[in-house]
Every structure is written in C-alpha cells, then in structure tokens.
Design brief:
- By secondary structure, the chain is an alpha+beta fold.
- Helices cover about 20% and strands about 35% of the residues.
- The protein is built from two helices and ten strands, in the order E-E-E-E-H-H-E-E-E-E-E-E.
- Strands 7-2-1-8-9-10 form a six-stranded mixed sheet, covered by helices on one side.
Length: about 160
C-alpha cells in the first residue's frame, strides 16, 4: 500500500479544508523551486507552478478556494489508467478527469496516515505561495514537530521607509 497523508489548507493554524491522499505521501524534497526528490512537496510545487503560470485568480490567501483548485488539479493527475506493457514499457492512457481514486475530502485525519502537510495561507513564500508545515505522524508515542518549508524560498524581508 502507498504512504497515506493528509493535506490541510489552513488560515494560520486553523484547518479550513482537509484533503486525504492515499498514496505517495512522503515529503520528497524541493530546494528553492527545484525538485530534488519526488513526493508531496514536488507535487505541491507543480500545483503552485500551474497556478502561477496559467491561472489569473489563484487565491493563495484563501485556503478553501485553494483546496478546491488542488482537488481538481490532483484529480486530473490521478485520472490515468494502466493499460499494460508495450515494448517493455508501462503504457498509461488518460481517462476522464473524474475517473480517479486515492483522493478524498475529510472531516478529520486518516487513522493510518504517515504525514500531515499544512499549507498556511497566512505565511507565503518568495513567490507568494503558501508555506508548508510538514509533520511525520508519531508512532509508539514518539514526539514530532512540524518543519516549515518554503518551496520558492523565504520571502525577502521588507524594511520600513
């Protein structure tokens, strides 16, 4: 089975939308807008890039609108079906964008999730995209903390005139 996770769309620490992802929930790694290793963070970078490059009304500061856009984007990513092997390579075909699994909208976190991601619409990175807090879900009483990630680097500090 895949690594499950929840992705929260927050206003500060308040969860406004909670998305369950059934597979590929490991963080991966992104450094200043460059993918180092695959996972949720590179997927969020792709999502942010799609919004920055192709969408006028991004609503990065509105977690509910941003969550809706994410669900549509992720559904389109998931709407591919394995059709078998062709010349030694896996062949996939795009299905209807509503023909997807492995994604849901939740009232609370999955009981078997391994990571939680919080997209904070009140704390933005250098390109104006929400900062992401990442936390591994503790097993066996371990304590873990959220680590804040800025996919495009921290915003420049402004000085008062």
């Amino acid at each position: 089975m895949g690594t499950r996770c929840n992705i929260h769309f927050n206003a500060g620490k308040t969860v406004c939308a909670n998305i369950y992802r059934h597979y590929d929930g490991y963080p991966g790694e992104v450094k200043d807008g460059v993918v180092i290793d695959g996972g949720v963070l590179p997927d969020l970078l792709s999502f942010y890039t799609e919004l920055l490059e192709n969408v006028n009304d991004r609503r990065f500061t509105d977690p509910t609108y941003l969550a809706a856009k994410f669900v549509v984007w992720q559904a389109k990513q998931n709407a591919r079906s394995y059709k078998g092997m062709v010349d030694g390579k896996a062949k996939y075909e795009d299905d209807h964008f509503l023909e997807f699994l492995s994604l849901g909208i939740c009232m609370e976190d999955a009981g078997d999730g391994e990571f939680i991601y919080e997209l904070d619409s009140e704390k933005l990175d250098a390109k104006g995209c929400p900062a992401i807090r990442v936390k591994a879900v503790p097993w066996g009483g371990q304590k873990t903390r959220f680590k804040t990630v800025y996919l495009h680097g921290k915003p420049a500090k402004t000085t008062a005139a």
